[in-house]
Amino acid sequence: MADIHLHSGPEDAHAYVQANGMDGIQIEMLLNLLAINNFLVLLRGKTKKPDKDSAIFISFIGNMDKRMKLDSKIKPEHGCHYYSALSMMASKASYENRAYIETIVKDHWKMEYMGFYDHWNDYQEKPRRNSSLCVIKVKTMTP
């Protein structure tokens, strides 16, 4: 019979995961370590360490779906189809860091990057990384 563990808050859950295996940050670091180093480099021990603030560091969600480009067949003049596709990609990108988002918006989506804003988390008494807002400017044909 499996043990059932009840947790009273995020700290208890985090402590349980750390005591019993890898947590999310460790999994993200491992996935990025494998992505930026090839197998031979890993065997030799001369690895590059992933930087969580770099434009190439990808979250767990980003590692599950590595698409970066918008569908080139869908244009702003297609209305809701375009904005639906853009919303989906923006939702996925919202889990990423500031440098990654800026690179995606400017270099892959070819849009104007307007800014990145952190929101305060009263419970944790710090800015929340995964509740940030990225503002982009979509150029359309209408004035």
UniProtKB/TrEMBL annotation:
In alphabetical order, the GO MF annotations are: triacylglycerol lipase activity
What InterPro entries has UniProt attached to this entry? OBL-like
Q: Name one GO biological process term.
A: lipid metabolic process
Superkingdom is Eukaryota
Which protein, by its recorded name, is this?
Uncharacterized protein
Organism whose genome encodes this protein: Gossypium barbadense (Sea Island cotton)
